[in-house]
Amino acid sequence: MSTSTEFRDVYHSPLIITSFGASAVLLFGLTDSPLSQPTHFVFGHFFSALVGVCITRLFVLNPRYQGYLDNTEYHPTTFICGGLSMATSLTVMALLGVIHPPAGATGLNAAVQANVVSLSWRYLPTILASSAIMLAFACLFNNLGRQRYPTFWIDPNLQLVEPISKEEEA
């Protein structure tokens, strides 16, 4: 099986977005959690990626930062950029009400992974496409049995599925 795609060959995008591993635990294991609902999942990752790319674009203006990206020298501002990206991503998610814990790592990836930094703005459609694919699989897989996913799409007060009571399970 080939892992070669146009995006991977031309832009050297990562094979997998590492933060999506933790998202899989939420989407497939904790389906009732508000943190695993589509709004939190998609927008949390998107806004974290956006914040991470914006902050990293400012740091890339420093010519020494480019040396880090080329793996030729150590640059301590990488840690500052990563921490600032992560903290700002969390703040933006909290302000928008779309906290998704693994999405913090999406903003961090935009700052510290050289192949993601080189994607720059192209990281955003990668995140959106990956989110859409994973969400489609979560909706399909989680609705095969008795459990239902998502419990809400946008507003938690508008529940799509009533929780199963103990009497109904028996």
From TrEMBL:
Keywords from the named record: Membrane, Transmembrane, Transmembrane helix
Keyword Transmembrane: yes
Transmembrane segments: 12-30, 42-60, 80-100, 120-141
The HPP transmembrane region domain, residue ranges: 11-150
Keyword Cytoplasm tagged: no
Protein's name in the database: HPP transmembrane region domain-containing protein
Species per Swiss-Prot/TrEMBL record: Taphrina deformans (strain PYCC 5710 / ATCC 11124 / CBS 356.35 / IMI 108563 / JCM 9778 / NBRC 8474) (Peach leaf curl fungus)
